[in-house]
Every structure is written in C-alpha cells, then in structure tokens.
Design goal:
single chain, about 110 residues, alpha+beta, 3 helices, globular, NIPSNAP family protein, NIPSNAP, Dimeric_a/b-barrel
Amino acid sequence: MIYETRVYRCLPGRLPALLKRFETITLKLWDKHGIRQAGFFTTLVGESNQDLTYLLAWESLAEREKKWTAFATDPEWIAARAKTEEDGQIVLTIENQLLVPTAFSAVK
C-alpha cells in the first residue's frame, strides 16, 4: 500500500466551506472514481487551525495516477468546485506526500 497525506491550508475563515465541500460533494465523487480515504483530520494544536489533513490509500502509483486524474478532470467535480468557490477561493495551499509503511508499521 501507498498512503498519500494531503494538507489543505485554507484562507482565514474558509475551513467550514472546505469541510462542507468534502462532506457533501467530494467524497461522493471519490466513491464514483474508486478513491479510498483513510482518515480526515483538523488541527487541534499546531501551526494553523485552518488546515484539513487527510490520508488516501492506494494500491500503487499507477492506481493513483489513473484514479486521481479521472477525478481531477471529471466535469462534475470541476463544476462543483467552481460553484463552491463563487464566494471566493477556499484553499490557500496544498501539500502532499506519498508514504510507504515501514516493516514495523501498524498500518500496512
């Protein structure tokens, strides 16, 4: 397994809009494309309480490329994202890393 961690830093006050978009739109589209989430987190203590961090689980880099590209170019996603940003940009920056579990990791 490969795990992808993504951190979305929102513009001030826009985290609720991002959470709503994931809950009501994004996750349904991920299901459509076979994208599996492994957890979502907001920051209780850390650099910014305007962050959303989440993990995705992939069988391989090829699976990630195929499914993520299909999602990112889906006209339904493009339209929904634009609609949710009619009041302005939500996400300031996105950071991501692709991780591989160690031999002793509880997560495989």
